[in-house]
Each structure stands twice: as C-alpha cells, then as structure tokens.
Amino acid sequence: MAVTIRDVARASGVHISTVSRTFSAPHLVNPETRSRVLATAEQLGYRPNRAARALITGRTHNIGLIVADIANPFFPPLIKAAETHARRRDYHVFVADTDEDPIVESDLVQALAKQVDGILLCSPRMSDDQIEQLRREVPLVVINRMITGLPAVVMDVGQGAREAVRHLLGLGHRHLVYLAGPRGSWTNREIRRAAGATARTAGADLTVLGPNQPVEEAGAAAAEAVLATGATAVLAYNDLMAIGLLQALQDRGVDIPGQVSVVGIDDIAYSGLVRPRLTTVANPTAAAGRTAVDMLLQQGDDGATGQVTLRTDLIIRNSTGPGPYAPAVAIAAEVAAHVKE
Amino acid sequence: MAVTIRDVARASGVHISTVSRTFSAPHLVNPETRSRVLATAEQLGYRPNRAARALITGRTHNIGLIVADIANPFFPPLIKAAETHARRRDYHVFVADTDEDPIVESDLVQALAKQVDGILLCSPRMSDDQIEQLRREVPLVVINRMITGLPAVVMDVGQGAREAVRHLLGLGHRHLVYLAGPRGSWTNREIRRAAGATARTAGADLTVLGPNQPVEEAGAAAAEAVLATGATAVLAYNDLMAIGLLQALQDRGVDIPGQVSVVGIDDIAYSGLVRPRLTTVANPTAAAGRTAVDMLLQQGDDGATGQVTLRTDLIIRNSTGPGPYAPAVAIAAEVAAHVKE
DNA sequence: CTCCATTCGGCAAACGTTTGCAACAGCTTA
DNA sequence: TAAGCTGTTGCAAACGTTTGCCGAATGGAG
C-alpha cells in the first residue's frame, strides 16, 4: 500500500541503504545519486516511516505533554509554546488530558512511554512516589512541582502569593481568605504556605477554604462561605475560581472591590475581560513550556537534572481596593487611580 | 535497557510467540501458562512496544487531532470529548495546533500520517484540493467543513445563523452587521450565506465586515467600524470576537443591548461570564468530537463516508434587546423578562 | 491399542528502517 | 608499481513485535 524505502530503491536502481542514507546522512552519498534518489522519492510520494525508524534508533522524535485539564485556559498558552518550540527542533508534541485524575495520569504516562522520547508532566496530581516510579520508564520533566532529583521547571507562585498578600495588607485588609485549589497540587501547597506566612508575619488573619476543584463553579459555590468568614479580601488558587467568586459575589449585591477585594493567580486571557478587571499573579507559562522542552531534549545527553524557577508578577487591576484599615495614602492612591481613568 | 518480550519469554521459560499471544490473543494459550507469563511480565515491568506492534499489524491505536488554535476555547471541549471517547476504545489521541496556518496544517498531517490510524481535521484552513490530496496518505475525518466524498461532521451553523438573524429581526432590528471570520473557513462562508439570505428575505440590510482573525482583539478592533455602519445589531463569527466587540463598545459608552445588540456563535464557557451575558448559538462540540472518532474508527471497515450534521441552538441571554423598529410585543416581552429576574 | 481431533506452543518470516562492515574504484604518494 | 587513502555503495543483521504453519502432547472413541 504505502510506498517504502524499497520501492524507491528499486525505482532508482540503488540499494535500500543508499536511499536510507540519502535521508538520514546525505553527505555520505554522491550528489548525483542523491538527487536521483530524491527525485524518484518525490515522484513516488515516499515519506520515511518514523515508527520503523524509531524501532532501530530508539528515538521517536515525539514528546508527550500531559496536562490536568486542557479546558483550563491556563494550559493552552503553555501547550502552544511547547509545540512551537519543539517543532523547530523537528519534534512533535502529543498532548493528552487527564481530567484531573491521577489514575488516568499514570496510565497515560505508561501508554505514551514507548511512543515518545520523553514526557512533560504538567501540574501532576500523582504522588511523588508514583512519579519517581514512572521516571524509570521514560525521561520526565515536571512542570509546576518540585521533586528532589527530578528535572523540573516551576513558576514561583510562592513569591507571587507573597506579593499579592502584601498588596492586600498594604491596602488595609486584616482578614484574608485563601480559596484553596485541588488536593495533590504542589502549587496549592506553595501558595498556601507563602500566603499564610506573610499574613501571620504582619499579624493578619488568613482563613483557608478548601480544597476545591480549580474551576469557576467551585469559586462561585464558595461565595457564601467567604462572606461568612467576614474577611474583606480573597486570594484564589487560580483565576477561574476568582472569576467564579467575583460573579457570585456581584450577584449577591456585594461591591467589588468596595466591600471585598479579590485576587486571582495565572493571568489567563479572561481575567482582563471580566468587570472589574481581575488583579492577579501572572505566570510565565509560555517560557515554562519552552524551558521544559529544552530540558527534556538535553536530558538524554548528560542526565543533568536542573530545576528552573521562573519569576511571577503581580498585575494590579480593579478587583482590589482599600480595606477597613486602609492608611490615608492607600485611599488617596485609589482615588488618583480612578481619576486617571 | 527496556524489558522486551524476549526477556519475559526467557524468564518464564516459554517462546516469545507464547508471550506475544498472552497479550494479543489470550484464548490461544493455556490458562496456567498464561498466568505464569503474566506474573513474570508484571514482575519485570514489561510493557508491549506499541511502535513495534504497529509496524507489523499496521494499526497504531493512535488518532491525530489537528485544530487551528488550542487556545480558542471553542476547541477544548471537543478535544476532551474525543479523547475520552477514544480512550474507551483503547485509542490515544494526539493533539496538534496549527496556529491557523494552512502550511503548518499540511505538514502536520504528513508527519502524523504514519504514527496514527487516522486524523481528525478540525476547522481546516487548507483548500479542498489539498485535503483531497492528503486523504490519500491517511484516513481523514473533517470537522466543520463539507467536502463532497469526504467523511465529515459539521455543526449546522447555517441554521444557527438563521435563527440568530430571525431573533434580531423579531426584536425590530433592520440593519445588521456580520463580523466575519478568517479566510478559508467553511463555517464563515456558511454563516455569511445563511445570515445574508435571511436578512434579505426580510428586507433588512446586512453589512459584512471582514475577514478577521477569530480572536477578541479583532472583535475589539472592529468596534469603530461597526458603529460607523449605523447598524443596531451584530452577529459575530464566534464568541471570542463578540466578547471583544462587546467590551470595546462598552468602553466607548455604548449601552448593550440598549443601543446595539450583539450575538456570538459557539457558546464557549466565558460567554455566560461577561456582562451582559452573551446571546449566542450553541454548538454541540462534544458530540461532534465523539461522532468524528466513531466515524474514523469505522472507516477502516467499509470505507463508507457519511456526512453528519449536528443541530445548533440559539441561546438568548442579555446582549440582545429591542431595536428601533421593535413591535410592542417584543418590548413587552423584554420588560417581562427583566421583571422575572 | 490404534486412530483422530483438539489444544498448545515453537519456529521463522515479516514489518520498514538504520548502520557497522566490507568491497571496490580511482587517486595520490613514495 | 605497490601501498595507502578517500569516497561511494552494497550486504546483512538488528530493532520488538505478530502470525501462519507445523509438530507434540493429550484424551476420547472405537
């Protein structure tokens, strides 16, 4: 059916090894022969069978990318960056979605293991042990999780959370809520720890609500609980939850940021679209995708297992405002900002 | 390095063919032998090499799924549905993103061709000719495009556009704008044709603005042009553009739907989050993903090339309201709706 | 005790490539 | 003129499976 290296060899009167070399080591074959082979290959519509090649070379030129939920707008920019970057290096990226399920996650890694040269594990929900286990079957780079001895690229959400909390404290908030993310998320633990420590140091209260699925519905569902705490500011695990909460609070007649300030994390495309625009911690997702691809491709060479941490940035928009203990300067700044608009 | 069928055979004292059969045709091997083999395989951590298997069986148990832009929230639900459905049939889905570029699209199909049993081509930007060409290299199912002789599943946006236009006409709008999508999009042509015909029949005007990239920025950028036409209602190629337009108009102090009504298409998750909530045409994307997978997997058997059309639904929210020629009943209905809230 | 049917498992070829080795031609060098 | 390169090509084994074919073992029927 399909045209193979053998057909090309026959049609151009050379041995199959010559055809093979024409594609994989052109400098080893006579320019004249080469162009003849190339011509017949072109004419016959020959395409090298990458699977067969992989069988013998051991390199598939594919990369697996496993994410928790492709519908979460946090991931697509990362995926796109990784794909584009990999394509430049003649690699293809196979994306798969685990539905936030650690079992599916582990299955996927095993199924993909033989079809790819390595896997990018993005925000994994598995236990550290499981990941260590899988690592023996296939090269791994983990994104958004720190495991000793494993190559990883993480975005420094701890720093982002600290900045966000300081921003809220500076505005005069003294009782905060952290709307937690899913169980098993390393990011969630980091944020929680950083936010808690920062609040405590300043003598403020931080109530943790959760765990929650990282989706809008969960944010919306938490509205009552947030109000019940009496807190005046909320930091959410991600923008999706922050947006859900924002809308649910507004539906209850709560003024944002007048009565409650809300901060998200991720800076997804939609956080600038809701009203008020969401104050949030921007994550360098595209850079993370590219870095992870590079780390994976270099890994084969030496086996050095670096861990890269990427900076995050607090983006102040309109969902945060002065709290009950606001110093005069904060209020003045707020007024000035509004005038400027 | 990796443990192969041969290692298992040696360790359990049988021939490799017996091991092979244990996995691919269990009924042909003695239960006792089978469990022994299974046990050693388990113990050694053996996983069949799907690439090697594919080489001889000709079936990879992989499906390729090519989309224009994974960051467009229209696609993820389709991708997820296709993945879940495929996984049930022991298939894996490899997703790739073309960045709306027909050249990348064609390259991807060719690169994927040998590694998958078939490809789902979602909203392709290539020409019909190119697609026909590629079809000879690999089984194809096209989503959101109708090409004679090619298996396809399309969502009936024509019907949706007709309903949307009738809705606007019924509200008393007489001058509409269609904010067009990208060049090369079959969907775009369908909407344009259906909307144009419906408007014309009713004696209303329809101005077409475009082509545009199907993203928010393009919608926002079109705000001035829309206002310049003097139209009182807009149908956008997709929700992303509709949302961009919505925000840009509001930023200019235009009241939605008081002065201008806006209708999107797709019903992405965020169309219910913006204020006012977006009136839009819901597409059955999940069903489309599942159907396409089924068609692809059946294709091998007989080669029957059906074309499936899926219904769309107009969802009326708050971004549409009475126009300048509104009949009394429409206004009354509008008032009633507001009271009900 | 023989014959036949059935079940089980081994043998080896095949899938489409890559690659180390060897052969050969045409040179250059001494 | 022999020896030694260099550049080009062919040969054949290998990668990890699947599968058609055949022989061995078992058991029941006659």
From TrEMBL, chains A, B:
Classification via Gene3D superfamilies? 3.40.50.2300, lambda repressor-like DNA-binding domains
- Name a GO molecular-function annotation: DNA binding
> Does the keyword Cell membrane belong to this entry?
no
Which part of the chain is the HTH lacI-type domain? 3-57
Keyword DNA-binding included in the entry's annotation: yes
Task: Enumerate the InterPro entries for this protein.
Answer: HTH_LacI (IPR000843), LacI/GalR-like_sensor (IPR046335), Lambda_DNA-bd_dom_sf (IPR010982), Peripla_BP_I (IPR028082)
- Note the Pfam families from the entry: LacI, Peripla_BP_3
Q: Which UniProt keywords apply?
A: DNA-binding, Transcription, Transcription regulation
Superkingdom of source = Bacteria
Its name, as the record gives it, is LacI family DNA-binding transcriptional regulator
